[in-house]
Design brief:
The complex is a heterodimer of chains A (190) and B (395). By secondary structure, chain A is an alpha+beta fold. In chain A, 22% of the residues lie in helices and 31% in strands. Chain B is built from 13 helices and 17 strands. Chain B has two domains: 2-171 and 336-389, Alpha-Beta Complex (Quinone Oxidoreductase, Chain A, domain 1); 173-333, Rossmann fold, CATH 3.40.50.720. The chains are: A alpha+beta (190), B alpha/beta (395). The complex binds nicotinamide-adenine-dinucleotide and zinc ion (ZN) (2 copies). The site of one zinc ion (ZN) has 9 residues of chain B, from helix 2.
Chain lengths: 190, 395
């Protein structure tokens, strides 16, 4: 169990950058102390409403996130996610938007009792120094099958931290340039 | 198509590989008419840059004719002749907006960017034919190349201008130029340049165009030193001279105002520090060989400037941080922001103020590329620059 640390000792750094982070303090719905907390910020040189709109429509997410088998909207707030895991495994869950402020914030959590529970929150803030929009994503997840699952995920490139980092890079590429960088190298397919 | 592929240390081969095709809307396909071997390619040839895979197509200095453009490219037209910058840059990110094209945030594929983020703190931009750290994009020592963001990078060459005059806009000419720009040259300045390879020679020429009072060039290949001299530099042969003592004497005891390291991580020379670096590289306790750079830092006058176009990839041992700090030196470096200088340098070439053709010592068919690499590495004195041409017929 992560210990509680006060803001004063930690300064202004985001919770996710703490050496001993407390997911429950990261402002996420349903996050628990044992979950893994991931935070990543990118600056995107586009207006925040445009970024928000693309992200808010879950049908767009496979454009920049890999390992998605399908993301199906169930209603305006709920969607069914099927993701590839290590080997032939699949993970499935229903995600519900629990809070939103159009053009600024989306916060979601998995619905019901699931062994792949996760929560997330993305905010879009005008860069105060005129560099576009600061996009800050924060996720927590309950690693499947504990520590061993984490290790397998890392080795097989399904590490959520890596996936989040790469998804944000692709989101930025798509929004800034209209395309997603691809080396087109035959060597990569070997 | 035919293309020069990397197979391993000192093993490059021309092979038949799949033709490139348009993948993204802003891509173009170029039929290559001229492509060159660079000193940077030798770092790959010598296997001192990580992230290579066997079969990678090399080459980042190339030009040719546009044969296909993607639907998102409103600028290039089929049939135009273009020179392609070695740095792949999107033109739309924060860095491109600052004309720091070699820092572009969007050209390195997301799954490739992790390695350089880990190595350098932030992910690097992509480049053609230069290891998977910078994207693993197939290069231009080939019959055809796919050029991403082709509405930003390639510069259109007017009809009637020979390939040989403009090919080096792809890399070494802007690299030599930026090296000199980074010296912040003031009137009366003496600039010392380590390395009289293509980058060093263009840095010499650029420093003089940018108003240096004097340029002193350092190398050990007699022919390369002669070329430096013909450009207007004074020269020092490091095999015969105690370089830093000579530089102090030649500058009235003050030292050069600015120094350029156009050698990079494979510095030659039989000195104890270099041998130690060399042994470590061989034994995989890899630190870069920074012999020339140590000399540069020691030679620069107090309050002077250092510019490093020479490529380094890892960490340095016995780096004279004290000399850097105590003398109050300014240091500028980086992969070249090629796109920033393309138009200005093309104009200087067309006006006859910069000549690049003197550098070319050999023109070979693409099929002879492997031999070109071997000779550019082993016979540096005669092989100053090798240009490869697909389906080249000698006259
Ligand atoms: N910054 C960039 O964007 C950029 C672009 C192109 C090339 N480069 C780098 O610039 C460097 C030079 O490129 P090049 O094509 O001219 O290479 P090159 O190998 O042809 O030339 C290097 C020269 O340095 C000389 N040299 C070696 N050790 C020396 C020493 N101790 N003192 C003085 N001279 C010494 C060699 O004799 C040789 O003539 C390489 O590291 C290359 O990777 C950088
Ligand atoms: Zn080059
Ligand atoms: Zn960019």
């Amino acid at each position: 169990m992560a210990k509680k640390t006060t803001r004063t000792t930690r300064g202004d750094a985001p919770e996710a950058t703490a050496k001993d982070p407390n997911p429950a303090a990261a402002g996420l719905a349903n996050a628990e102390g044992e979950d893994t907390l991931i935070g990543r910020t990118v600056t995107i040189n586009r207006p925040r409403q445009e970024l928000y709109d693309l992200w808010r429509d879950v049908r767009n997410i496979p454009l920049f996130m890999v390992d998605v088998v399908s993301i199906t909207p169930l209603d305006d707030l709920r969607s069914r996610w099927v993701m590839k895991g290590p080997g032939d495994t699949r993970f499935e869950w229903t995600s519900v938007i629990v809070e939103e402020e159009p053009g600024y914030l989306i916060s979601w959590a998995t619905e019901g009792d699931t062994d792949v529970s996760n929560t997330g929150r993305i905010v879009f803030i005008d860069s105060p120094n005129g560099r576009g929009t600061i996009v800050r994503a924060t996720f927590t997840y309950d690693a499947p099958a504990g520590a061993l699952g984490k290790l397998v995920a890392k080795v097989t490139q399904h590490d959520p931290r890596m996936q989040a980092r790469r998804a944000l890079r692709r989101f930025k590429q798509l929004m800034e340039t209209g395309e997603i960088a691809n080396a087109g190298s035959p060597v990569d397919d070997r | 198509m035919r293309a020069l592929t990397w197979q391993g240390k000192h093993d490059v081969r021309v092979e038949t590989v799949p033709d490139p095709r348009i993948i993204n809307p802003r891509d173009a396909i170029i039929r290559i008419t001229s492509t060159a071997i660079c000193g940077s390619d030798l770092h790959l040839y010598d296997d001192v840059i990580p992230g290579m895979k066997s079969g990678d197509v090399l080459g980042h200095e190339f030009m040719g004719e546009v044969v296909e453009v993607g639907p998102g490219n409103q600028k290039l037209k089929v049939g135009e002749r273009v020179v392609v910058p070695f740095v792949i840059a999107c033109g739309q990110c924060f860095f491109c907006g600052k004309q720091q094209f070699a820092a572009c945030d969007n050209s390195n594929p997301a799954e490739k960017a992790d390695a350089s983020e880990l190595a350098y703190g932030y992910p690097m931009a992509a480049a053609f034919g230069y290891s998977h750290l910078t994207g693993g994009y197939p290069g231009g020592q080939a019959e055809y190349a796919r050029v991403p963001f082709s509405d930003i990078g390639p510069i259109v060459i007017p009809d009637g201008v020979d390939d040989d005059k403009v090919l080096f806009l792809s890399d070494i000419l802007p690299t030599g130029w930026m090296a000199a720009v980074n010296c912040d040259i003031e009137s009366g300045d003496t600039v010392a340049v380590w390395g009289c390879g293509p980058v060093g020679l263009f840095a010499i020429q650029s420093a003089l165009v940018l108003g240096a009072h004097r340029v002193i060039a350092i190398d050990h290949h007699p022919h390369r030193l002669e070329l430096a001299k013909s450009l207007g530099a004074e020269v020092i042969n490091f095999e015969e001279t105690r370089v830093n003592e000579a530089l102090a004497e030649l500058t009235g005891g003050i030292g050069p105002d600015a120094c350029i390291d156009a050698v990079g991580m494979e510095s030659h020379g039989l000195s104890p520090d270099n041998l130690l670096d060399h042994i470590k590289v061989k034994t995989f306790m890899a630190t870069d060989r920074v012999h020339a750079l140590r000399q540069v830092i020691m030679a620069t006058r107090k309050g002077g400037r250092i510019s490093i176009p020479g490529v380094y990839g890892g960490v340095a041992d016995k780096f004279p941080i004290g000399a850097l700090m105590e003398k109050g030196l300014t240091l500028k470096t980086g992969q070249t922001h090629v796109q920033k200088f393309s138009q200005q340098l093309l104009d200087l070439i067309l006006d006859g103020k910069l000549d690049t053709t003197f550098l070319i010592s050999h023109r070979l068919d693409l099929e002879e590329a492997a031999e070109g690499y071997k000779n550019f590495k082993e016979k540096q004195n005669e092989f100053t620059k090798v240009v490869l041409k697909p389906k080249f017929t000698r006259h």
